[in-house]
Each structure stands twice: as structure tokens, then as C-alpha cells.
Amino acid sequence: MRIRHMATAGAATAALTLGIALPASASDAQPSVERSHTVAAHRTAGLGALMASKKVQVFQHAVYEGRNTTFTSSKWDLSKDGWDNTISSAKNLGTRTVTFASDEKGTGAKFSLAGGDREAHFGYRGLPDTTTSVMFR
Fold first, then answer.
1. What local confidence, expressed as pLDDT, does residue 26 receive?
2. Taking a C-beta distance cutoff of 8 angstroms, is the pair 102, 130 a contact?
């Protein structure tokens, strides 16, 4: 135990001499297992909140009918997901703005839905079954 104190004191002296910050493990106090679990749970919850902020449900037919799926990340080319030129309505279930575009990588005609918004008929927005990419901002 005495050797650990001497090593810690030596590390602290070297750090102060060199003007660098000490890592948290340089102190004698170790975080409790309970605190470690609390921190891990907090970080996991933060990631879940980030994912929840990017969430849009798309539908094959107008008025939220037919085949549907939920995207939680941007899709530059919907042909890879089987949704190219088939989206007719959508509900933005997240908090981030989602933009629908008629061409790959967000080019061409486009419109956006703010968090919580929905569109029952893409034809009213100039994208009648022509959506090829979905992007979150």
C-alpha cells in the first residue's frame, strides 16, 4: 500500500512539474461499482435519445396505409432498401428534420418534415412516388 502511495505521489509531482492534468485513476479513490453502472446506464440512455431523434415512418400508400417501415438513419439510395419510388406518406416520429428527395444523395426535388410533422400524400408536395433518398438534419 505504501508503494502505491509513493508511486501516486511521484506521478502527481511529475504531472505538476510538466504542467499536465492527472487522469482520474491517479487518485486513491476508485469509483464504486454502483457509480460505474449508473454512468454506463446514463451513456446508453443518451445514445437511445440520439437514435430516437432520428425516426421517420414511411408508407407505401397515401394516408399512412400499405406496407411501411421506419428509418433511423439517412438513406442516400432507397433502391438498396426496397423503397425507391414507393413512398407516398410519412410520419416524422423523431425530433430532427427529415428531408425526402427525388434523386440519390438528396438531389432533385425535395421537401422536409420537421420533428413531429406528417404528410399524408407526397403528391401534394411534388414527390408522387418519386422519393429516392431520405436525409436527417
1. 47
2. yes
